[in-house]
Amino acid sequence: MASKEIGLEVNANKTKYMVMHQDQNAGQSHSIRIDNSSLERVEEFKYLETTLTNQNFFQVEIKSRLKSGNACYHSVQNILSSSLLSKNLKIKIYRTIILPAVLYGCGTWSLTMREECRLRVLENRVLRRIFGPKRDEVTREWRKLHNEELDDVYSSLNTVHVIKLRRIRWAGHVACMGATRGVYRVLVGKPEGKRLYRGPGVYGKMDLQEVGCGGMDWIELAQDRYGGGNL
After folding, report:
1. Are residues 126 and 83 in the same domain?
2. I need a labelling partner for 155 at 20 to 30 A (CA). Which of 28, 40, 74, 132 fits?
3. Whole-angstrom Cα distance, residue 79 to residue 76?
4. 64 and 141 part of one domain
5. Which pLDDT score is estimated for 50?
6. What digits encode the pLDDT tens for the residues 92-103?
């Protein structure tokens, strides 16, 4: 951002800025003054309803998505437990109201086991509300369905699997852009430094292995409009 002397004006609506850096000390607050405007340095902000952090951590965004998903769940939990609606209709409500709130922007997430467990906990809570309790064959008492039983009765892909498929789709779109685009170079690049970092390309290979397409050159598939354009 530059001052008026070189032909640019400061947008009065822009009052903050952020520097993305791996160094934790890079997030310290420093204000910038341009003419009569002051820009505050921040560690995170929302852009297109997505929370961005100065160290590019997705935990904050995933936590926010889970909070939104829980809010949606609590708003319809009575409907999901109603005996007047079929289970298929309840699942449609889950997919159209709760799931989009949780998975918004998930195509670029880097998930840890902790985040995967949190996502599955929310999904299983919703599914238990939809499918209700089960009578135990031994004790004859009603009990909640176990996670394995939920996987059996819910025929669709679980949340974590959907996220990995969307990451593959996003990577395919980026690969079709070509090597001249900056986002493509980020996708296939190999960052250097002391801090262990897995780039998006590494996650793409891991995701393909999990969906049974390991060993394929996913970049060539994606760049082939007829073969991989639908990744």
Report:
1. yes
2. 74
3. 5
4. yes
5. 75
6. 999 999 999 999
